[in-house]
Amino acid sequence: MPFGDIRDSMNYTLKTILRLLKREPKHTAGFRLNLGTALCSLSLQKAFTYRSGPNPRVEAEMHYAWRKRKGNLSIDPVLEANPHIIITGMSGFGKSTLFRSMLSDIKGAGISAIIFDPHGEHGSTIQSLGGTVHDAAYSGINLLDLDGATVGERTSELTSLFRNTYTLGYIQATKLSECLWYTYRKFGAASRNSRELKSTPTVKDLIAELNIFISNSRSASETNTLVHLRDRISLLNTPAFNGNAISVSALANGINSFSLSRMKSSEGRMIYITELLKRLYSTMHGSGIDDGVRLYMMIDEAQFLISNSDEGNEITKMIEEGRKYGMGVVVVTHAAGRLNRQITANASTFIAFYAREPQEVAYTSRLIAHGDSSKTQAVMARLGHLKKHEAMVISAAIRSPTVFRTNLPERQQQGKSDNPPQMAQLAERPILFEELKRKMGHADGAIIEGEIEAGGLTSFTLDTSKGKERWVMKPRASLSIEHEVYIRKIIAALDSLKIKNYIMDNSRGPDIVCYLNGKKTAIEYETGRKNFEETAKMIGKRRDEYGNVIVFVNDSKIAEYRKIEDITLFSASSVTDGSLSSWLLGLSALAPHG
């Protein structure tokens, strides 16, 4: 064989071996999560000490010291021991900024993501990336769905879930298990090994069975036990736990976020996320082995959503087995010390922002230093001096603890603006850009533009019959600026016609309630970005409560929303083209007296 052919063959073989060693699949090749700019890293250095006396000498000793570093810092999840990441630190020091930066990188790499957002604060970011925001209050998971399990297995799973969440005693747990079995029997279960039912029961059916148990109880003690159990489970008799609006298989495509802000019960949140994780875990097992990363599950404020119990912890199972199924997990928390130890033990990358609680600082320092006492002291001292948007990272690839600054606009890194309190207060609700500029005394609006770029404000441009209007607003949980601007416009139209109205500024009511010729009417504005099935259920609930329902929707989604029956539907453009007042005037004249 000619020498050139031999050389080419050897090069090809070498490249193949290197690619296999890196285990770098095509769909994640070049996938990196940018952390920011490196500032310094910890290294073991030699120090020399001169000893005087009868036998003068120079002694060498090793100690840890921080050395300056420059350049961009990033991690490659595919080349790490596993793709899992833990981010910890006090609120307000930059965790959310890094979280959003990672999400943008994940989206840019064409990788899907599922986000659990307890306060709904990432809604605008998800929507700007073309993702879907699911409102957990209406995005249903039927807890009693067998989901491929036997009746006995599902009964055991639910009993364990309720026992751990509500800290039930042995007698309560036994009664609950028995009641679940009777509920399934009424829906066609021939035995505890049955996998098929005539129809699927819901939480409402379980409560009805508990009421039968209460009426048949033989003692006051038994009655009290069952009543206490029923009252706990009755809190779950909501659309969030009675429907099947979520297609778990569909969640593996694109960006999907679950906003839990409308779920006021912490136990309800825990049950919701545990049940959804269980179904994701089952789906993951059925999807086959994958050497790359095809899906990231991102959990913000994990201390509110993850149980630290060792029993039945679905996130622990996912983080232990996720890599081989192509799944990575990002956990963001105020306190890593409160997480299940299996989670921290199986995450390759650990990122720590500033923390004040001594126990948390000590635990984080030991974790980063791998238990080395001298190293721990050096890490602990540096953690206490981290500034806002600075963090320390350690991973399988970044073996030396490294301090970095997250990627922010240059002026914000220099501390020239940090979302001035006056600006945030003025923009708590939508405000016109020019009006905010006038009130802040910013002639050119550069600082306001900088806040928009940094994520401290959101911006929305509205085309009206009188020209373009640019609105800005401080990001709010679960509410987009588009939604808030249109609500303001609808209110203005109602006021101009002297139609009595008020904003229902809470999680349970419609956006606006008005009185058309004395008839109480619910008004909703929909951006069209939320899941349609969930929204249709919510609108159906409004129709049951109010009778009259008016829905305004983004023009691009008007055809889809025509499928909803017995509502009055308007396009968003009718709010801004001058026709809304005439439409409302006509409705007011036609509406019957209440």
Features:
disordered N terminus; Rossmann fold; 12-stranded mixed sheet; 20 strands; alpha/beta; 5-stranded mixed sheet; single chain; globular; 594 residues
Notes on the structure:
With about 600 residues, this protein is α/β, with parallel strands linked by helices. The protein folds into four domains: about 70-130 and about 295-405, P-loop containing nucleotide triphosphate hydrolases (Rossmann fold), CATH 3.40.50.300; about 150-235, no CATH class; about 410-475; about 480-590, Trna Endonuclease, Chain: A, domain 1. Helices cover about 40% and strands about 20% of the residues. The protein is built from 22 helices and 20 strands. The strands form three sheets. Strands 1, 2, 3, 4, 5, 6, 7, 8, 9, 10, 11 and 12 form a twelve-stranded mixed sheet that branches. A hairpin with a 2-residue loop joins strand 17 and strand 18 (about 520-525). Helix 4 packs antiparallel against helix 5 (about 170-185). The chain is globular, with a radius of gyration of 29 Å.
Q: What is the CATH architecture term of the largest domain? A: 3-Layer(aba) Sandwich
Fraction of helical residues:
40-55%
- CATH C-level class of the largest domain is Alpha Beta
Rg, Å, rounded = 29 Å
Write the layout of secondary structure elements.
Blueprint: H1 3-22, E1 33-51, E2 57-68, E3 72-75, E4 85-88, H2 95-108, E5 112-117, H3 123-128, E6 132-135, H4 151-166, H5 170-186, H6 203-215, H7 220-234, H8 239-242, E7 255-259, H9 266-285, E8 290-299, H10 314-321, E9 325-333, H11 341-345, E10 349-352, H12 358-369, H13 373-383, E11 390-394, E12 402-406, H14 410-413, H15 421-426, E13 431-432, H16 433-440, H17 446-454, E14 458-464, E15 467-473, H18 481-496, E16 501-503, E17 512-516, E18 519-526, H19 532-546, E19 548-553, H20 558-561, E20 568-571, H21 573-576, H22 580-590
Parallel strand pairs: 4-9, 4-10, 5-7, 5-8, 6-7, 8-9, 18-19, 19-20
Antiparallel strand pairs: 1-2, 1-3, 1-12, 10-11, 11-12, 13-15, 14-15, 16-17, 17-18
Helix pairs in contact: 4-5, 4-9, 5-6, 6-7, 9-10, 12-13
